[in-house]
Amino acid sequence: MPSPAHAPDFSAPASRPWSADQDETLRCVHVRQETHDVKTFVLAADGPRSFRYLPGQFITLELEVDGRRINRCYTLSSTPTRPDLVSITVKRVPGGMVSNWLHDHLRAGMALGVMGPSGAFSCFSCFSAPAQRYLFVSGGSGVTPLMSMTRALHDLGSDADIVFVHCARTPADLLFPEELSMMARNMAHLRLAMVCEHHTHGSNYAGHLGRLDLHRLAHIAPDFLQRDVYTCGPAPFMGAVRGMLAGAGFDMQRYREESFSFESLPAEIQPEIEHSSPENETGVTTYRIHLQKLAQEFTCRSDQTILQAAAAAGLRLPSSCSSGACGTCKTKKISGQVEIKHAGGIRQREIDQGWILPCCSRPQSDVALDR
Amino acid sequence: MNNPISAATLLTRELIARRRPGHSLEAPFYLSDSVLQADMEHIFGQHWIYVAVEPQVPEAGDYITVDFGKHSILIVRDDDMQIKAFHNVCRHRGSRLCATQQGVVGNIVCPYHQWTYDLAGKLIHAKHMGEDFDPRGLGLKPVHLRNLAGLIFICLAKNPPEDFALMDQEMTPYLAPHRLADCKVAAQVDLVEDCNWKLTMENNRECYHCVGNHPELTISLHEYGFGYQPDPQNAEGLQRFQEILEASHARWEAMGLPSAEIDTLDERITGFRTQRLPIDRSGQSQTLNAEVASKKLLGNLRDPALGGLSFWTQPNSWHHFMSDHVVSFSVLPISATKTLVRTTWCVHKDAVEGVDYSVENLTAVWNATNAQDRRLVEESQIGIGTGAYEPGPYSPFTEGLVEKFCNWYVRRLDALTR
Question: What pLDDT does residue B172 have?
C-alpha cells in the first residue's frame, strides 16, 4: 500500500501557534483539480505540526516568478479542525501572473515560502459575536473562506443555521458541490442554494439560473434580514451584494466581506460595455445580437425583430407563430434592451426576469441572448 | 345502442349486493383492478373531487397539473383571475400539454407542434393547417371546477352533482374567516401509499387507532373528540370534554365563527362533515406544542385559540383550518394498490419563513402522522391480500364515520351501475 505523501506523527505533543509574523517553508504535498480552471494546493510542514488559525483567514505566499519576488495572499480553504495540512484553492485568472504560475508550476514535493495566517473575516473571530443565523454568499472562488468556516462548523458538530449561497458562471464552475451536499446532509440547518448565470450544455444542474438579485435572495432566504452576512467574491460581485442588502434595509453592522485574492479581478463578472453604431438619417439604428451558447453574432435593425434578423443571418432559432402568441422562441436575455409587443405568449413577470420572445422583440441596444 | 355492461360493472354489482352493513368491505374492493376501474368511472368520474388549494395558482398564468387514474387535468388561472380546468390533452394528436406539476404559461402551447390555446381553451394558433382549417370546435376540453372558499374541486362528469351548491352554501360561513385565498403554500408533500385509496380514506375516518399510533398528533388532539365507548374509567374525561366542547362552541360562535357539527356524509351525493373541535393544551394549532406554527394569523383572526375546524368530503379529502394555518389532504388513486396522498400546508401570504414560521415546525405533526398512517394502511393492504381476510365488524362507538364512508361508496356505486 502506498504511504501518504505527508505522514504526521499523531502521538507528538501539540505544536506552537501559527501567526502572521511567522515566516517559514511549507511543502506542497498534493494538487487537486477542482474544476477546469480551479486547483486546490495542499500544503504541509516538514516537521510535526498542528496548524491553528481562524477559518476564513488568509496566508501570504512568497514566490519567485520569472526571477521576480512576489507576495500574494490567499484565503485558506482548509479547516483547522483537520490540523495537519492547510490548503488554498486558486482559480487560474487570465493574465494573472501568480495564479498561472501556481497552476503551471506548483507540484507535489515543491517548497514554498509562507507567512502565517492573518485577517478577521471569520464567524469564529473574537470580534464577531456568535450569530443565531448566517447567510454565506460567495461568488466563484470567493467560496474559499466560507468553505473553511462551513467545514469547521461541520466538523465541530455545530447546528448553526446557515443559508449557503454560491454563485458561479455555469454549473461546471461550481466549487465543492458534492462536499457541500454531504455537509448539508449532516447538518440539519445548512441550506444550499446554487446560482449559475448560464446553463452548461448536457449538465443535470437544477439550481437557480440568472443573477443573485433581491427577489431571488428573498426566495432563497426569506429571513435574510435576520441573518449575519459573510460575503466573498470579486469586487463588483461584493459591491452588488452590499448595494442590494443596503437597499433592502439590511443592518450593515451585520455585514462582513473579504476579497479572496489580491490578484486582478476576472473580467467576466464586470459590467458589459455597450457598443452601438450611430443612428442613420431614417431613425433606424443597427445593433449587434450575440448568441452566447452558439457563439454567433449578427446585426439587427431597430425596426426588425430579432427572429427576422437571425433568419436573415442563416440562423434557425426555435419558433412557431412568429407573432408572440405561442412562446416557442422564449429566450433568456443576458444583456441589452428590447421592445416587446407580444400576444400573450409571455408573462410580464417572465419579462421582468429577463425573458423575451425574439419573434416580437426589436432591439434598442446591442443584445446578448442565452442561446 | 345502449351502453354495454362492463365486466367491472357486473362484478361490482354482485359485490354491492353482498355487502354486510357495519362491516368492512370484501377483499376485491381493495385488490381488484376491475373494481378500481369502476371506482374511476363512477366515483372519481361522477363526483366532485378535491384536488388543490387556490394559493397553488396565485397569479394569472400560474398552472398546476393533477394526475389520477389515467387522467391528467390542467388547472390554470386566466387573465381575469378566474381558475379554469381542462383535460391536459392537445386536440391535434393527443399529446399531453403541460408535463410539469406546476408552472407558468402565457398561452397554453403543445410541445409537439406548437398548437396554441388561450387560457379560455380556445385554439388560437396552428401552423400549416391550410386555408380551410376551422379552429372552432378544437378548443381544449373543459372540466367543471368549483372554488369553495379557496378549496378547488373538479368534476369530470358531463352533468356534475348539483348538490355541491348546498355544501358551498353551508360550508362557506365556516371556511371564509380563514381566508384561504389570501394564503400561500408553505409546503406540499406527496406520499405514495401501497394500498387501495379506500383504505387511506377509511383510516382517515376514525381515531380508534390514534392513541396507539400517533404520539405527535395526540399532543394537540383531544382523546375524546372522535367517539369513545363510555366506561367508568373514562366517564369523567368524557364529561369534561363535553363541557370544553360546549364552552368553546359558545365562545367561537359569539366571535362569528360557526362551529356546530354538520354531517351529510352518507345522506347526499356530495356528502361532507364538518365541526370545529377544541385543541388540547393552549388550544391553538396542530403542532408539537399545540401552539400556533405561524405568528401571522389568517385573515382578520386575532385570537390564536380557535381550535381546529375540520372538514371531511366524500370521496377523497379532509382539511383542518386553524387560526394560523390550513392543512389540506387530497387522496388520488394511482392504481388498485397505489394511492397518492397530497398534503398541503398554507400560511398567511405575508408570513415570512424563518421569521413568522419554520416549515419544519409547521409540518412536523402531519409528516409524522402521515408516515405512521402509511404503515397502518400498507399493513392492512398486505393482510387483506393474504386470502385469510374476511370483512370484520366496525366499532359502533369509534368507527361510525368509516361505516358512513362505506355506505356512501356502496350506495353511489349501486346507483350508478344499475
Answer: 98
Mean pLDDT value of segment B178-201: 98
Asked if the model's pLDDT at residue B16 lies above 70, the reply is: yes
Q: Which of A13-17, A277-281, B28-32 has the lowest mean pLDDT?
A: A277-281
How many C-alpha atoms does A161 have within 13 Å on its Cβ side? 13
B-contacting residues in A 306-345 (Cβ below 8 Å): 320-321, 323, 325-328, 342, 344-345
Contact A345 B107 (CB under 8 A): yes
Q: How confident is the model at residue B4 (pLDDT cuts 50, 70, 90)?
A: low
Enter the C-alpha cell of residue A88. Answer: 488554498
Contact B52, B148 (CB under 8 A): no
**Domain B49-160 classification at class level:** mainly beta
pLDDT at B223: 75
ipTM > 0.95 for the complex: no
| pLDDT at residue A131, as a whole number | 66
All structural domains of chain B with their residue ranges: 49-160, 163-417
> Does the domain at residues A23-118 carry the CATH identifier 2.40.30.10?
yes
Most A CBs within 10 Å, among B90, B105, B294, B296, to test the A interface: B105
Q: How confident is the model at residue A281 (pLDDT cuts 50, 70, 90)?
A: very low
Interface contact B105-A327, CB threshold 8 A: yes
Instruction: Print burial letters for B198-229: b (CB count within 10 Å at least 16), e (below 16).
Output: bbbbbbbbbbbebeebbebbbbbbbebbbebe
Residue A146 neighbours by CB distance under 10 Å? 29
Task: Place A292 in a pLDDT band, splitting at 50, 70 and 90.
Answer: confident
Residue B226's pLDDT band, with cuts at 50, 70 and 90, is confident
Q: Tell me the C-alpha distance between A186 and A278, whole Å.
A: 59
Domain with CATH 2.40.30.10 in chain A: 23-118
Does residue A270 carry a pLDDT above 60?
Answer: no
Binary contact (A344, B107; C-beta < 8 A):
yes
Q: Do B106 and A226 touch (CB under 8 A)?
A: no
Alpha carbons A150 and A155: distance in angstroms, whole number: 8
CB contact B129 to A (< 8 Å): no
Give the three cell numbers for residue B55: 394559493
End-to-end CA distance of chain B: 17
Report the top-level CATH class of A133-269: alpha beta
pLDDT (tens digit, 9 = 90+) per residue, A230-267? 999 988 899 899 999 999 999 998 999 886 554 433 33
Which pLDDT band holds residue A279 (cuts at 50, 70, 90)?
Answer: very low
Q: Quote the CA–CA distance of A196 and A206 in Å, as a whole number.
A: 10
Average pLDDT on A267-279 reads: 33
Residues in B closer than 8 angstroms to A133, CB to CB, are 354
Q: Give the minimum alpha-carbon distance from B11 to chain A in angstroms, rounded to a whole number.
A: 47
In eight-state DSSP terms, residue A366 is -
Beta bridge partners of B116: B109, B125
Chain B interface mutation, best of A228, A321, A350, A356, highest count of B Cβ atoms under 10 Å: A321
Contact A350/B114, CB-based, under 8 Å?
no
CATH topology of domain B163-417: Naphthalene 1,2-dioxygenase Alpha Subunit; Chain A, domain 1 (3.90.380)
Which fold is adopted by the domain A286-369? Ubiquitin-like (UB roll) (3.10.20)
Check if A186 contacts B (Cβ < 8 Å): no
Q: Which is it for strands A255-258 and A228-232: parallel, antiparallel or unpaired?
A: parallel
